[in-house]
Amino acid sequence: MDIEQHDIVPYIRQADYAIRAPFWIGERNLLDYILFYVQEGLFEIQARGKLHVLKEGDFCLLQPGDIHTIKGINNTINPHIHLDFFYNPLRAKSFITLPGQLDMSPHLELIQPRLNDFTVFEIPITLQLSQPQKMRDLLFKTIELWQRQSYISQMQANQCVSEIILTVIKDYMKPQTTALVAKPILNWITSYISFYFSEPITIQDMAKRAGISPSRFQVVFKQAFGISPHQYLLRVRIDHAKELMKSFRSIQLVSEYCGFSDVHHFSNAFKKATGYSPAKYRDSIMEH
């Protein structure tokens, strides 16, 4: 699979601290990702045909399709996040699987792409990170923000978890092949747009990062994605607006979070893309 064809748009399903006496979680499969940190205690995770022993300070990343068991050997504390890495319009319908749930075939439309299915990655169960202290701090901050459950804290939690994902990608992306070097913007541009879509993004900024002229950037981008950078950015913003309107009624706040200069601009762009005004789209969701 080609990672450039998938938008990285995190969706946190659960973020919490598990404080437990010795325990056992029976065999289960996954639809989403689990980022798992050992704050205290000792764990044994059986996955991918191997037994993985995790001690204090270790990070673990379980990917969709990882059939696994988890055993807490002693008293344990493990901050963790269940999340989607990639955008899926059906993600609100996905769920955290339970022990015994192994067959995911009835839920194929909900399964996240696996990072290890992309040719540029080979990520182990136990992560060896270049900046473990930074990752730990980001994880703690994400959990704290997500549990506040306010509009602003949810935005901040998503920003933190985006940085977590980018850290993992930077640490584990394989050396670029000749084909990737020939198209330098394709290695980072979708993640960059997904991370900064709420801020002013210009062709000049992206071209400068890519090391090519703005005119050349637009040509190469359209060759790769079939649409212009502006159209791609607009699509990402509209998709996020649709998601936000499932939870928030304020069109003004949705407009601001999605990077539009004003509500009028947002309303025109949204109606042109969907055929509905933001208010009508929001109200139709609330009715269901």
From TrEMBL:
InterPro entries from the UniProt entry: AraC-bd, Homeodomain-like_sf, HTH-like, HTH_AraC, RmlC-like_jellyroll, Tscrpt_reg_AraC-type_HTH
Domain HTH araC/xylS-type: 187-284
Superkingdom of the organism of origin: Bacteria
Keywords attached to this entry: DNA-binding, Transcription, Transcription regulation
Gene3D superfamilies registered for this protein in UniProt: Homeodomain-like, Jelly Rolls
Gene Ontology MF term list: DNA-binding transcription factor activity; sequence-specific DNA binding
The protein's name in its UniProt record: AraC family transcriptional regulator
Biological source species: Paenibacillus psychroresistens
